Amino acid sequence: MPALCLFAVPFLLAAETTLPVPVNLKPENIPPIPEALMEKLDRYNESRSALLLDWDPVRREILILTRFGDVPQIHRVAMPGGARTQLTFYTDRVTGAQYSPTNDNAFVFAKDAGGGEFYQFYRYDTGTGGVTLLTDGKSRNTGVVWSHDGKQIAYSSTKRNGHDTDIYVMDPNDPQSAKLAMQVEGGGWAVADWSADAQKLLVSEHRSINDTSLYSVDISSGRRELLTASTKRASYVNAKFAPNGKGVWLTTDQGSEFHHLGFLIMPGRDMMAWGPEIPHDIEDLAVSRDGNHIAFVANEDGYSALHAVDVRTKKEFSLPAMPRGTILGMKWNASGSEIGFTLSSAKSPADVYSVDVAGGKLERWTTSETGGLNPAQFSDANLIHWKSFDGREISGFLYRSPASFSGKRPVIVNIHGGPEGQSRPGFQGRNNYFLNELGVAVIYPNVRGSEGYGKTFLDLDNGLKREDAVKDIGALLDWIANQKDLDASRVMVTGGSYGGYMTLASMVQYNDRFKCAVDVVGISNFISFFERTQAYRRDLRRVEYGDERNPQIHAFFEKISPLSHASAISKPMMIVAGRNDPRVPWQEGQQMAESIRKNGAPVWYLVAEDEGHGFARKKNQDYEFAATAMFVQEYLLK
Q1: Among candidate residues 508, 637, 503, 511, the one with its CA nearest the CA of residue 574
Q2: DSSP code for 633
């Protein structure tokens, strides 16, 4: 009997299996995704994060937001390092939760449907697990704040006409008690706090990132008093009534390039700078319930620095060293002895920590999984700087691939949204696949218009200066060309939301210098964007981008919109959109895909029927990332 040949029958091998497309995703021109690729991606898809929502007002426990299924849900954690007990089980994401400040019998949480951002509020009974819908199921409701006696909530709602964010109050035990407390015009109104006696609300009107006003509103009469009557435009955020009623804690850039800690004295409305002088933006502020302690976070070139101060002595607490990264969502516990927060770093996903400020003890409440990968091996963020066309210094963060990859490395330039956002040195999640497995370096630029660098820098891309930010990307390409370890001939640009616009605009201006691009929910034409974006957002966006009803601005938008210059793009493009997107409607991606295809350039297009402004469902995220990884391999690396 002849020996069996093991290598002579390749035709007997089964055809390569491919990944099923999730039912609500509609891909166009995206090749079938091999299951073998998904196996390589699996560990990078399985990292989690945990966000602090609230402290239990009675027990030393917390509520967090994390995902074990398809979308984030509320979980309870009973001790540092304790089990994450899931409390909500919806097919749609939950976005926030707050306990009553006086007892833990109930908390109020928010949820939307299909990523549409028309949030509804619900009351969760912790004793029975019963859930009661509080709002009308149709309007957009945001910014719930409990009264200090735990009897009422206040919030913003578009219930009256679909676009103005009026202020309502309600007893959450009786949804029918909802009462219009203040009728407004505009989409930027929000509740900041209640007075200690529950007779007044502290309300903010946000017109732009550096133009806000604060009002004291009498609930019974609806009468409002302007508290921030500065003659110059300024920002006032993170505002909270002092528990003794003598003023308002806040952060402001009034009279300063950066946001600083301030105290608005009442009733005279004099603004007093308070606390240590810090040459950086103070970006978050938390006041303990008794008013004796405050905590705040300084943004130091993108890294967060936590501070805590005893108000009575004005002395800072000595806080323990903690991982260098980004801090958000600070909350004091009921006694004011511990400050809880979420921290993310390049080496760790977002997780929840707390600090006993008097004892200086740091504790970690959650340790989120990284898909079995060793986080110590993940790339660190490196702060970089380059000079732009006008000599202005621009900065960003560079993540290098491991030293095991030799030669000049290809680069992904990933531009943040906002446009008033800021790329921070946080966890890379799925993008660690590009670094660790493909040897691709990733750069996150903070072009002009980014927050965190002072209000002058923030205004540098407004109105008719929009394309100056695109020139910052051109200068970054020059910088890449001068780096010994980076390959300027293999660069891809990507970004989401406004970062998607920047991606398209960069391809128009520098088509010959990029190999390919991935646009995620980006603006392709400012005029059609304003026609279709939700009404409650329109005036707020006009302040930043310009008013398209002005003939000069209208003509400028036609000139700079990527759709007007789609013929300039000849390189491969991947475009992602969500059918329920209230911010950048899906048609922005569709029209760009159709126009670029007329040039004969390859265009992969992916739209989700059950998503909004970015994909929230894990199964959709997994497919999107697999398609992106395949696109990178096909058009950046080959």
Answers
A1: 503
A2: I
pLDDT tens track for 163-196: 999 999 999 999 999 999 999 999 999 999 999 9
Compute the average pLDDT of residues 386-413: 96
Contacts of 413 (CB under 8 A, 6+ apart): 443, 445, 473, 476, 491, 492, 493, 494, 506
Helices (H), ranges, 322-465? 432-436, 455-458
> Model confidence over 285-336: pLDDT tens digits?
999 999 999 999 999 988 999 999 999 999 999 999 988 999 999 999 999 9
DSSP at 230: -
Residue (of 204, 182, 198) closest to 146 by Cα position: 198
Structural domain spans, the chain: 16-45+372-637
Structural element, H or E, at residue 84: strand 84-86
Distance from C-alpha of 61 to C-alpha of 97, rounded to nearest angstrom = 14
End-to-end CA distance of the chain: 47
Q: HEC profile for 396-437?
A: EEEECCCCCCCCCEEEEEEECCCCCCCCCCCCCHHHHHHHHC
Find the length of the chain.
638
Angle between helices 618-631 and 35-45 (to 10 degrees): 120
- Name the β-bridge partners of 85: 76
- What is the Cα–Cα distance from 96 to 389, expressed in whole angstroms? 42
pLDDT recorded at residue 268: 67
Say if CB 182 and CB 166 are below 8 A apart: yes
pLDDT tens per residue, range 459-490: 999 888 999 999 999 999 999 999 999 999 99
Cα 182 from chain centroid (whole Å)? 29
- Write the pLDDT tens digit of every residue in 211-250: 899 999 999 888 999 999 766 789 999 999 998 888 999 9
* 141: nearest Cα among 169, 110, 113: 110
For domain 16-45+372-637, give the CATH number: 3.40.50.1820
Contact yes or no for 62/76 (Cβ under 8 A): yes
**∠ Cα 182 188 194 (to 5°):** 50
Q: What are the beta bridge partners of residue 203?
A: 191, 215
